[in-house]
């Protein structure tokens, strides 16, 4: 059996090695390392895949969020609503721009932001909502967009974990995650569903004016070379990373299918176990399983993870500390107990290996040892 990893990037690379190596070599031969043909080609292909007018490549997913807020001209003191159950980058950029992160709780089934909690958090200072499409499925965007329209708020989708997921509207139409709000953001960190071999990110929008402004912001605020009309940043996707992403983008739907097959195997093994709850699949979203995350009940989680480690099965906790209890984000507005769902999840969830290269032998080995620990 192959060695188990949370994400097996090497096996994935070996499967596409010829195309990856060819794309990288073409960039090296051209010496167009920044804003080369690979970047413009990837941009167009991602626009077509997502069905969105504008993709603005950038250096990473955190920059994508920051550039979005800069382009919207949010001012210090403006409030931005987001979830307490997410990776730190979501709130990090809000704080960096001297905006006020307003944290809310999540749905106990999908782990995504709770629209009712958003509605309760809106104040006259609220300017934007940042829903996070957590672990691979889209947040309840129809309800979120309704709240945003009611209160005249911007919506910035944090789509760093759910690229390729489809959201289904009540009228039967669908859109890709990240293309529903005013702006969508994603990360191409190597372990993501669409990952490069370094750092990378992108921003999506159907708004021509916002796209123009974000292109200016990512390039030092320049409108014409050496003429800087705005405060900007230096955030570019390099050509080698774009070459890698072009190869993987062509396989993204296939990769999602492989992840779903692995998730189905896990579900079949763990469904109805009294000590585990398998991931809830939201009916209005396809799930692309960036992570496969279980909720435990009456389980010594630390002992379980240590036991799996002794069998060379990696397991992770995403996320052990809620945002509102992180030392850097302690705020007198919040105290332990304010977000009971988030806090319960942080105490009970764990994630098993999830990637495109999992095979039946590995999945059988993993599920056998999880159940062996739970049933002893």
Describe the structure.
Strand 6 (166-168) and strand 7 (174-176) form a beta hairpin. With 376 residues, the chain is of the alpha/beta class. The model has no long low-confidence stretch (mean pLDDT 97). It has 2 domains: 9-106 and 113-249, Type I PLP-dependent aspartate aminotransferase-like (Major domain) (Aspartate Aminotransferase, domain 2, 3-Layer(aba) Sandwich), CATH 3.40.640.10; 252-375, Aspartate Aminotransferase, domain 1 (Alpha-Beta Complex), CATH 3.90.1150. It is globular, with a radius of gyration of 21 Å. The strands form 4 sheets. Strands 1-9-8-5-4-2-3 form a 7-stranded mixed beta sheet, with helices on both faces. The protein has a 3-stranded antiparallel beta sheet with strand order 12-13-14. It has 13 helices and 14 strands. Helices cover 39% and strands 15% of the residues.
Outline of the structure:
The protein is of the alpha/beta class and 376 residues long.
Give a quick set of tags describing it.
alpha/beta, 376 residues, three-stranded antiparallel sheet, 13 helices, Aspartate Aminotransferase, domain 1, 2 domains, seven-stranded mixed sheet, Aspartate Aminotransferase, domain 2
């Amino acid at each position: 059996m192959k060695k188990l990893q949370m994400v097996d990037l090497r096996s994935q690379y070996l499967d596409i090695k010829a195309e990856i190596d060819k794309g990288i070599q073409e960039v090296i031969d051209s010496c167009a390392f920044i804003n080369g043909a690979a970047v413009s080609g990837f941009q167009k292909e991602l626009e077509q895949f997502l069905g969105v007018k504008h993709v603005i490549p950038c250096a990473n997913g955190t920059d994508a969020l920051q550039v979005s807020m800069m382009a919207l001209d949010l001012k210090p003191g403006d409030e931005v609503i987001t979830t307490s159950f997410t990776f730190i980058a979501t709130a990090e950029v809000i704080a960096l721009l001297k905006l006020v992160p307003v944290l809310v709780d999540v749905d106990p089934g999908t782990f995504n932001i709770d629209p009712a909690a958003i509605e309760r958090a809106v104040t006259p200072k609220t300017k934007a909502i940042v829903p996070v499409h957590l672990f691979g499925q889209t947040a309840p965007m129809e309800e979120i967009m309704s709240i945003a329209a009611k209160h005249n708020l911007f919506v910035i989708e944090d789509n760093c974990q759910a690229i390729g997921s489809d959201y289904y509207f009540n009228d039967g139409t669908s859109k890709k995650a990240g293309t529903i709000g005013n702006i969508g953001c994603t990360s191409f960190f190597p372990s993501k569903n669409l990952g490069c071999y370094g750092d990378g990110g992108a921003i999506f929008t159907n708004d021509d004016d916002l796209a123009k402004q974000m292109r200016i912001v990512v390039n030092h605020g320049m409108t014409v070379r050496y003429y800087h009309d705005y405060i900007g940043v230096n955030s570019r996707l390099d050509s080698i990373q774009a070459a890698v992403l072009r190869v993987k983008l062509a396989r993204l739907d296939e990769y999602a299918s492989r992840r779903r097959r692995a998730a189905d195997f896990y579900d079949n093994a763990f469904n109805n176990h009294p000590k585990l709850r398998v991931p809830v699949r939201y009916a209005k979203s396809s799930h692309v399983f960036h992570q496969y995350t279980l909720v435990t009940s009456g389980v010594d989680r630390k002992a379980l993870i240590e036991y799996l480690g002794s069998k060379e099965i990696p397991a992770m906790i995403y996320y052990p500390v809620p945002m509102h209890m992180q030392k850097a984000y302690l705020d007198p507005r919040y105290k332990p107990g304010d977000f009971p769902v988030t806090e319960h999840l942080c105490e009970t969830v764990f994630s098993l290996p999830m990637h495109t290269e999992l095979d039946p032998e590995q999945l059988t080995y993993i599920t056998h040892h999880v159940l062996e620990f739970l049933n002893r």
